[in-house]
Amino acid sequence: xxxxxxxxxxxxxxxxxxxxxxxxxxxxxxxxxxxxxxxxxxxxxxxxxxxxxxxxxxxxxxxxxxxxxxxxxxxxxxxxxxxxxx
Length: 86
Description:
It is built from three helices and no strands. By secondary structure, it is mainly alpha-helical. It has one domain. The termini are far apart. The mean pLDDT is 77.
């Protein structure tokens, strides 16, 4: 149940941050979206590292979820920077 909540919440968060980052508004909306995406990526890095702790249950679903959501957040944060150089 909690893994499902992480995945659904993460997808909603990445979608919202993507809408801010990819918006056509200049400046502040893109910067706010990128900063939020970097903060969410930092949360995913911490969660990924926490899932490596030895426990009785399998940690790979958590690692997969944190890895995919974190990668998506980093890609969203880098998008405005790459677009401005073109």
